[in-house]
Amino acid sequence: MKKVLLSLVLLAAATVGFNNNSIAQEATTNQVVSGPELSVDKDVHDYGTIENGANGVCVFTVTNTGNLPLIISSCKGSCGCTVPTWPKEPIAPGATAEISVKYDTKRTGPINKSVTITSNAVQSPRKVVRIKGEIKPKPAGSAPVNGGPTTQG
């Protein structure tokens, strides 16, 4: 009789413990994070193959998917040839804004650069986006840069 009673007590204790654990996991899963959140329309902008000296500007659209204003404190290119411009005013919940990135397309060859966006987003305060592509060489016989010699083919 003692064994049966002890088994029932242990079974009841295990059931209560399992239910409490399930409730705790459910509460954690259903928690809503309060604060600003940054979402970007794309992680990579691909210029494809472009002409030397072409317009090197691309735009990333950011959305505040949180419930408090999003503030982008900085955007930094991985080198001096990649220059981002970002909104300095807070982005309201649900609103969008644009981050413009200008790449110096007078540099021949492949493009593979990054821009780090730093904000007050709760889940991901730093977001890295990339630009990639290929810049064609200057055409033969094109005007010299900075008074240098021309190249004749």
From TrEMBL:
This is DUF1573 domain-containing protein. Residues 1-24 form the signal peptide. InterPro entries: DUF1573, Ig-like_fold. Keywords: Signal. Pfam families: DUF1573 (PF07610). Residues 133-153 are annotated as: Disordered. The keyword Signal applies.
